[in-house]
């Protein structure tokens, strides 16, 4: 159980949520795990719950406290709310900004700023941790390029230019992604991004990691009442979770890419975990996907200090915190959306 930004996150599986007076009580096999006052909560997000009492749901509905139910793996199931109030205002503000490209750029630039900052941090960390195994001057040059691009991104108010700056930053970072692969070099390499289909082992793993991250982020956005399908940088397209793709930009490198690199460099995955189809597509075997998903869930449980909140939380809660911060910005509670700047 963790309280962040007036939101209660319940990570323990198989927990029953009940009401006692003005308090939420967490029960597991009739044992009381925790108790917290409800009066200053805005929402409750439960992962892997067993149920919630009608009394608790009625109490929360009357007081505009949403209850969000997720699977233990983070897939959004349902959001229980009372009469529509703030959620309508929040979505109307989201839609209004999305319709205005200048306003959209002012929000979207912080997503990209976070992405580029975190890519720069990854390059700098490589120079610190593996100076004898990489071309340090090359990494430092790319890091400097990213710093210069961040200055331009910070002032950008045009979506097309923002996409161009993001593309330049991605080029500087991607050309060094292969150098960050330190083991199994014959079987694992990165030359360029290939998506549909992935054409090598690394791209197959990146595609799966990005899909998982997009799903987690979409669930987080739905959990706070935002529309995951209406974005600011990624424009509307039927069936595409555009806002989730926006918000996850900050985590692509620092979470998804680092996760894939760790599986390769620690030899958790090998070339035997992949098959190549007749059309050239490279796919993970069923057993390899299970191993990948298990490692992904374990990584989400690892702790870190959130750079904006200063709170010690699990990595898996980061999309939820960023969704909360975005909602607060759109409501006018924050002057600016604070991107996830990992240090």
UniProtKB/TrEMBL annotation:
It is an enzyme of class 3 (hydrolase). Keywords: Antiviral defense, DNA-binding, Endonuclease, Hydrolase, Magnesium, Manganese, Metal-binding, Nuclease. One of its GO terms (molecular function) is DNA endonuclease activity. GO terms for biological process: defense response to virus; maintenance of CRISPR repeat elements. Its EC number is 3.1.-.-. It comes from the Bacteria. It holds the Pfam family Cas_Cas1. Mn(2+) binds at residues 166, 234, 249. InterPro entries: Cas1, CRISPR-assoc_Cas1, CRISPR-assoc_Cas1_C, CRISPR-assoc_Cas1_DVULG, CRISPR-assoc_Cas1_N. Its cofactor is Mg(2+); Mn(2+). CRISPR (clustered regularly interspaced short palindromic repeat), is an adaptive immune system that provides protection against mobile genetic elements (viruses, transposable elements and conjugative plasmids). CRISPR clusters contain spacers, sequences complementary to antecedent mobile elements, and target invading nucleic acids. CRISPR clusters are transcribed and processed into CRISPR RNA (crRNA). Acts as a dsDNA endonuclease. Involved in the integration of spacer DNA into the CRISPR cassette. PANTHER family: CRISPR-ASSOCIATED ENDONUCLEASE CAS1 1 (PTHR34353:SF2). Belongs to the CRISPR-associated endonuclease Cas1 family. Homodimer, forms a heterotetramer with a Cas2 homodimer. This is CRISPR-associated endonuclease Cas1. The gene is cas1c.
